Amino acid sequence: MGQGLWRVARNQQLQQEGYSEQGYLPREHSRRMAVSSIPNANHRKQVQGGIDLYHLLKTRKSKEQEGFINLEMLPPELSFTILSYLNATDLCLASCVWQDLANDELLWQGLCKSTWGHCSILFKQLPLGLSYKSLYRVLEKGILTYTSTPESGVNYFMSKGILDDSSKEIAKFIFCTRTLNWKKLRIYLDERRDVLDDLVTLHNFRNQFLPNALREFFRHIHAPEERGEYLETLITKFSHRFCACNPDLMRELGLSPDAVYVLCYSLILLSIDLTSPHVKNKMSKREFIRNTRRAAQNISEDFVGHLYDNIYLIGHVAA
Questions:
Q1: The CATH number of the domain covering residues in 203-314
Q2: Where are the domains of the chain?
Q3: Whole-model pTM above 0.85?
Q4: SS in 3 state form for the chain?
Q5: Alpha carbon separation from 167 to 59, 97, 142, 202 (Å, rounded)
Q6: Could you read off the pLDDT of 127-171 as tens digits, one per residue?
Protein backbone atom coordinates (compact mmCIF):
# COMPACT_ATOMS: atom_id res chain seq x y z
CA MET A 1 0.00 0.00 0.00
CA GLY A 2 2.79 2.41 0.97
CA GLN A 3 4.80 1.58 -2.17
CA GLY A 4 1.73 2.17 -4.34
CA LEU A 5 1.14 5.63 -2.88
CA TRP A 6 4.82 6.44 -3.32
CA ARG A 7 4.70 5.46 -7.01
CA VAL A 8 1.64 7.66 -7.60
CA ALA A 9 3.27 10.65 -5.93
CA ARG A 10 6.53 10.00 -7.81
CA ASN A 11 4.76 9.77 -11.18
CA GLN A 12 3.01 13.08 -10.52
CA GLN A 13 6.35 14.70 -9.72
CA LEU A 14 7.98 13.28 -12.85
CA GLN A 15 5.09 14.50 -15.01
CA GLN A 16 5.50 18.00 -13.62
CA GLU A 17 9.22 17.89 -14.53
CA GLY A 18 8.58 16.65 -18.07
CA TYR A 19 9.03 12.89 -17.46
CA SER A 20 6.72 9.89 -17.63
CA GLU A 21 6.91 6.51 -15.94
CA GLN A 22 8.46 5.03 -19.08
CA GLY A 23 11.08 7.80 -19.47
CA TYR A 24 11.12 11.15 -21.21
CA LEU A 25 7.92 12.64 -22.57
CA PRO A 26 8.01 13.44 -26.27
CA ARG A 27 10.30 16.39 -26.95
CA GLU A 28 7.63 18.69 -28.36
CA HIS A 29 5.17 17.86 -25.58
CA SER A 30 7.81 18.59 -22.96
CA ARG A 31 8.63 21.89 -24.64
CA ARG A 32 4.93 22.82 -24.83
CA MET A 33 4.56 22.14 -21.12
CA ALA A 34 7.55 24.36 -20.29
CA VAL A 35 6.40 27.15 -22.61
CA SER A 36 2.76 26.98 -21.50
CA SER A 37 3.85 27.42 -17.89
CA ILE A 38 5.12 30.91 -18.81
CA PRO A 39 2.24 33.17 -19.89
CA ASN A 40 4.10 35.61 -22.14
CA ALA A 41 7.52 36.54 -23.44
CA ASN A 42 7.98 39.42 -21.01
CA HIS A 43 7.33 37.15 -18.07
CA ARG A 44 9.74 34.54 -19.45
CA LYS A 45 12.60 37.03 -19.36
CA GLN A 46 11.94 37.83 -15.72
CA VAL A 47 12.16 34.23 -14.55
CA GLN A 48 15.41 33.02 -12.93
CA GLY A 49 17.27 36.31 -12.94
CA GLY A 50 16.43 37.31 -16.50
CA ILE A 51 17.36 34.03 -18.25
CA ASP A 52 14.91 33.18 -21.05
CA LEU A 53 13.86 29.57 -20.43
CA TYR A 54 12.45 29.23 -23.93
CA HIS A 55 15.81 30.28 -25.38
CA LEU A 56 17.62 27.71 -23.23
CA LEU A 57 15.25 24.98 -24.40
CA LYS A 58 15.92 25.91 -28.02
CA THR A 59 19.65 25.44 -27.54
CA ARG A 60 19.17 21.69 -27.08
CA LYS A 61 20.19 20.16 -30.37
CA SER A 62 19.28 16.50 -29.89
CA LYS A 63 17.74 14.11 -27.45
CA GLU A 64 21.20 12.93 -26.39
CA GLN A 65 21.90 16.51 -25.23
CA GLU A 66 18.69 16.75 -23.22
CA GLY A 67 19.35 18.95 -20.18
CA PHE A 68 22.83 20.02 -21.43
CA ILE A 69 23.41 23.58 -22.58
CA ASN A 70 26.10 24.51 -25.07
CA LEU A 71 28.26 27.30 -23.63
CA GLU A 72 28.63 28.84 -27.09
CA MET A 73 24.88 29.54 -27.08
CA LEU A 74 25.10 31.56 -23.87
CA PRO A 75 26.18 35.19 -23.56
CA PRO A 76 30.02 35.37 -23.46
CA GLU A 77 30.03 36.93 -20.00
CA LEU A 78 28.11 33.96 -18.58
CA SER A 79 30.25 31.41 -20.41
CA PHE A 80 33.49 32.96 -19.12
CA THR A 81 32.08 33.08 -15.59
CA ILE A 82 31.32 29.34 -15.73
CA LEU A 83 34.77 28.49 -17.11
CA SER A 84 36.53 30.67 -14.54
CA TYR A 85 35.67 28.08 -11.85
CA LEU A 86 37.78 25.41 -13.60
CA ASN A 87 41.37 24.57 -12.78
CA ALA A 88 44.07 24.34 -15.44
CA THR A 89 43.50 20.65 -16.20
CA ASP A 90 39.73 21.00 -16.61
CA LEU A 91 40.16 24.16 -18.66
CA CYS A 92 42.43 22.32 -21.09
CA LEU A 93 39.83 19.57 -21.38
CA ALA A 94 37.11 22.18 -21.97
CA SER A 95 39.20 23.64 -24.83
CA CYS A 96 38.67 20.36 -26.72
CA VAL A 97 34.98 21.28 -26.95
CA TRP A 98 34.97 25.08 -26.75
CA GLN A 99 38.37 26.01 -28.14
CA ASP A 100 37.81 29.76 -28.50
CA LEU A 101 36.18 30.13 -25.09
CA ALA A 102 38.54 27.96 -23.03
CA ASN A 103 41.68 29.43 -24.61
CA ASP A 104 40.67 33.01 -23.87
CA GLU A 105 43.59 35.07 -22.55
CA LEU A 106 41.61 36.66 -19.73
CA LEU A 107 40.70 33.24 -18.34
CA TRP A 108 44.31 32.09 -18.24
CA GLN A 109 45.50 35.43 -16.90
CA GLY A 110 43.05 35.12 -14.00
CA LEU A 111 44.16 31.52 -13.41
CA CYS A 112 47.82 32.59 -13.23
CA LYS A 113 47.03 35.35 -10.74
CA SER A 114 44.80 33.18 -8.55
CA THR A 115 47.38 30.37 -8.43
CA TRP A 116 50.57 32.35 -7.89
CA GLY A 117 49.26 35.69 -6.67
CA HIS A 118 52.32 37.75 -7.47
CA CYS A 119 54.77 37.47 -10.34
CA SER A 120 56.66 40.42 -11.77
CA ILE A 121 55.64 39.47 -15.31
CA LEU A 122 51.93 39.66 -14.45
CA PHE A 123 52.27 43.42 -14.01
CA LYS A 124 53.98 43.92 -17.35
CA GLN A 125 53.09 43.40 -20.97
CA LEU A 126 53.82 39.85 -22.05
CA PRO A 127 56.62 39.36 -24.59
CA LEU A 128 55.53 38.77 -28.16
CA GLY A 129 54.58 35.19 -28.81
CA LEU A 130 53.95 34.36 -25.15
CA SER A 131 50.36 33.69 -24.08
CA TYR A 132 49.06 33.39 -20.54
CA LYS A 133 48.40 29.71 -21.17
CA SER A 134 52.06 29.24 -22.09
CA LEU A 135 53.05 31.33 -19.05
CA TYR A 136 51.06 28.97 -16.84
CA ARG A 137 53.07 26.03 -18.20
CA VAL A 138 56.34 27.88 -17.54
CA LEU A 139 55.26 28.60 -13.97
CA GLU A 140 54.36 24.94 -13.43
CA LYS A 141 57.78 23.89 -14.69
CA GLY A 142 59.43 26.43 -12.41
CA ILE A 143 57.58 25.05 -9.39
CA LEU A 144 58.85 21.55 -10.21
CA THR A 145 62.39 22.92 -10.48
CA TYR A 146 61.95 24.73 -7.16
CA THR A 147 60.76 21.52 -5.48
CA SER A 148 64.00 19.87 -6.53
CA THR A 149 66.30 22.80 -5.64
CA PRO A 150 64.81 26.10 -4.37
CA GLU A 151 67.72 28.21 -5.59
CA SER A 152 67.50 26.67 -9.07
CA GLY A 153 63.75 27.27 -9.16
CA VAL A 154 64.08 30.96 -8.32
CA ASN A 155 66.90 31.34 -10.85
CA TYR A 156 64.69 29.68 -13.46
CA PHE A 157 61.91 32.20 -12.81
CA MET A 158 64.36 35.09 -13.16
CA SER A 159 65.89 33.67 -16.35
CA LYS A 160 62.41 33.50 -17.92
CA GLY A 161 61.61 37.05 -16.86
CA ILE A 162 58.86 35.90 -14.52
CA LEU A 163 60.54 37.40 -11.45
CA ASP A 164 62.74 40.45 -11.20
CA ASP A 165 66.11 39.95 -9.57
CA SER A 166 65.03 41.63 -6.35
CA SER A 167 64.62 40.32 -2.81
CA LYS A 168 61.33 42.23 -2.50
CA GLU A 169 59.88 40.64 -5.62
CA ILE A 170 60.97 37.18 -4.50
CA ALA A 171 59.44 37.80 -1.06
CA LYS A 172 56.12 38.87 -2.61
CA PHE A 173 56.11 35.77 -4.79
CA ILE A 174 56.69 33.53 -1.75
CA PHE A 175 54.10 35.39 0.35
CA CYS A 176 51.34 35.10 -2.27
CA THR A 177 52.05 31.54 -3.44
CA ARG A 178 50.59 28.74 -1.33
CA THR A 179 51.84 25.81 -3.43
CA LEU A 180 55.51 26.04 -2.45
CA ASN A 181 57.03 23.15 -0.54
CA TRP A 182 57.46 24.55 2.96
CA LYS A 183 60.45 22.36 3.83
CA LYS A 184 62.33 23.60 0.77
CA LEU A 185 61.20 27.14 1.54
CA ARG A 186 62.65 26.92 5.04
CA ILE A 187 66.03 25.93 3.59
CA TYR A 188 65.91 28.75 1.05
CA LEU A 189 65.00 31.45 3.59
CA ASP A 190 67.72 30.27 5.94
CA GLU A 191 70.22 30.93 3.16
CA ARG A 192 68.62 34.14 1.84
CA ARG A 193 68.20 36.35 4.92
CA ASP A 194 67.57 39.39 2.71
CA VAL A 195 64.47 37.70 1.29
CA LEU A 196 63.45 36.69 4.82
CA ASP A 197 63.66 40.32 5.98
CA ASP A 198 61.40 41.49 3.16
CA LEU A 199 59.02 38.59 3.74
CA VAL A 200 58.58 39.51 7.40
CA THR A 201 57.71 43.12 6.52
CA LEU A 202 54.82 41.89 4.35
CA HIS A 203 52.97 40.69 7.46
CA ASN A 204 50.53 43.01 9.19
CA PHE A 205 49.91 42.09 12.82
CA ARG A 206 47.99 45.20 13.78
CA ASN A 207 45.38 44.65 16.53
CA GLN A 208 46.10 40.90 16.66
CA PHE A 209 46.51 38.95 19.88
CA LEU A 210 50.12 37.81 20.23
CA PRO A 211 49.55 33.99 19.96
CA ASN A 212 47.27 34.43 16.93
CA ALA A 213 49.82 36.69 15.23
CA LEU A 214 52.52 34.11 15.91
CA ARG A 215 50.37 31.36 14.36
CA GLU A 216 49.83 33.46 11.23
CA PHE A 217 53.57 34.14 11.03
CA PHE A 218 54.47 30.45 11.21
CA ARG A 219 51.83 29.56 8.62
CA HIS A 220 53.82 31.57 6.06
CA ILE A 221 57.30 30.98 7.44
CA HIS A 222 57.38 27.51 8.93
CA ALA A 223 59.34 27.04 12.14
CA PRO A 224 62.26 24.59 12.15
CA GLU A 225 61.72 21.21 13.74
CA GLU A 226 64.35 21.83 16.40
CA ARG A 227 65.69 24.78 18.34
CA GLY A 228 68.65 26.65 16.97
CA GLU A 229 69.95 29.88 15.55
CA TYR A 230 67.37 29.98 12.75
CA LEU A 231 64.43 29.73 15.18
CA GLU A 232 65.91 32.51 17.31
CA THR A 233 66.28 34.65 14.19
CA LEU A 234 62.63 34.09 13.25
CA ILE A 235 61.38 34.99 16.72
CA THR A 236 63.57 38.10 16.82
CA LYS A 237 62.29 39.33 13.46
CA PHE A 238 58.71 38.58 14.44
CA SER A 239 59.08 40.46 17.75
CA HIS A 240 60.31 43.61 16.06
CA ARG A 241 57.62 43.42 13.40
CA PHE A 242 54.85 42.84 15.97
CA CYS A 243 55.99 45.87 17.98
CA ALA A 244 56.19 47.99 14.83
CA CYS A 245 52.59 47.06 13.91
CA ASN A 246 51.24 47.75 17.43
CA PRO A 247 53.09 50.76 18.88
CA ASP A 248 50.15 51.95 21.01
CA LEU A 249 49.61 48.52 22.53
CA MET A 250 53.30 48.16 23.31
CA ARG A 251 53.30 51.49 25.16
CA GLU A 252 50.11 50.57 27.03
CA LEU A 253 51.47 47.19 28.17
CA GLY A 254 55.01 48.43 28.65
CA LEU A 255 56.44 45.82 26.28
CA SER A 256 59.63 46.01 24.26
CA PRO A 257 60.84 43.76 21.40
CA ASP A 258 62.96 41.86 23.94
CA ALA A 259 59.93 41.26 26.16
CA VAL A 260 57.88 40.06 23.16
CA TYR A 261 60.77 37.75 22.29
CA VAL A 262 60.58 36.20 25.77
CA LEU A 263 56.82 35.80 25.48
CA CYS A 264 57.09 34.14 22.07
CA TYR A 265 59.66 31.66 23.30
CA SER A 266 57.52 30.93 26.35
CA LEU A 267 54.48 30.33 24.12
CA ILE A 268 56.39 27.87 21.95
CA LEU A 269 57.61 25.94 25.01
CA LEU A 270 54.11 25.97 26.49
CA SER A 271 52.65 24.70 23.21
CA ILE A 272 55.06 21.76 23.21
CA ASP A 273 54.32 21.05 26.86
CA LEU A 274 50.52 21.04 26.48
CA THR A 275 50.29 19.22 23.15
CA SER A 276 53.05 16.63 23.45
CA PRO A 277 51.79 13.16 24.49
CA HIS A 278 55.21 12.45 26.03
CA VAL A 279 54.78 15.14 28.70
CA LYS A 280 52.64 13.68 31.47
CA ASN A 281 52.80 16.50 34.01
CA LYS A 282 51.46 19.48 32.06
CA MET A 283 52.45 22.98 33.05
CA SER A 284 49.75 24.73 35.05
CA LYS A 285 48.61 28.27 34.48
CA ARG A 286 50.17 29.41 37.74
CA GLU A 287 53.52 27.86 36.81
CA PHE A 288 53.48 29.49 33.39
CA ILE A 289 52.76 32.92 34.89
CA ARG A 290 55.50 32.52 37.49
CA ASN A 291 58.14 31.32 35.01
CA THR A 292 57.30 33.98 32.42
CA ARG A 293 57.35 36.87 34.88
CA ARG A 294 60.74 35.77 36.13
CA ALA A 295 62.12 36.35 32.63
CA ALA A 296 60.12 39.56 31.99
CA GLN A 297 59.11 41.19 35.26
CA ASN A 298 57.23 44.17 33.79
CA ILE A 299 54.59 41.98 32.10
CA SER A 300 51.09 42.01 33.56
CA GLU A 301 50.01 38.81 35.30
CA ASP A 302 46.55 39.02 33.71
CA PHE A 303 48.07 39.39 30.23
CA VAL A 304 50.26 36.31 30.74
CA GLY A 305 47.21 34.41 32.01
CA HIS A 306 45.32 35.25 28.79
CA LEU A 307 48.26 33.91 26.80
CA TYR A 308 48.05 30.60 28.64
CA ASP A 309 44.30 30.35 28.06
CA ASN A 310 44.77 30.92 24.32
CA ILE A 311 47.28 28.08 23.98
CA TYR A 312 45.20 25.79 26.19
CA LEU A 313 42.03 26.34 24.13
CA ILE A 314 43.34 26.79 20.56
CA GLY A 315 46.57 24.80 20.48
CA HIS A 316 50.12 25.05 19.22
CA VAL A 317 51.43 28.34 17.83
CA ALA A 318 53.93 26.73 15.47
CA ALA A 319 52.20 23.53 14.38
A1: 1.10.1000.11
A2: 2-69, 104-179, 203-314
A3: no
A4: CHHHHHHHHHHHHHHHCCEECCEECCHHHHHHHHHHCCCCHHHHHHCCCCCCHHHHHHCCCCHHHCCCCCHHHCCHHHHHHHHCCCCHHHHHHHHCCCHHHHCCHHHHHHHHHHHHCCCHHHHCCCCCCCCHHHHHHHHHHHHHHHHHCHHHHHHHHHHCCCCCCCHHHHHHHHHHCCCCCHHHHHHHHHHCHHHHHHHHHCCCCCCCCHHHHHHHHHHHCCCCCCCCHHHHHHHHHHHHHHHHHCHHHHHHHCCCHHHHHHHHHHHHHHHHHHHCCCCCCCCCHHHHHHHHHHHCCCCCHHHHHHHHHHHHHHCCCCC
A5: 53, 43, 18, 12
A6: 888 889 999 999 999 888 988 888 999 999 999 888 999 999 999
Q: Rounded to an integer, what is the distance from CA 223 to the centroid of its chain? A: 20
CB-based contact 287:237 (threshold 8 Å):
no
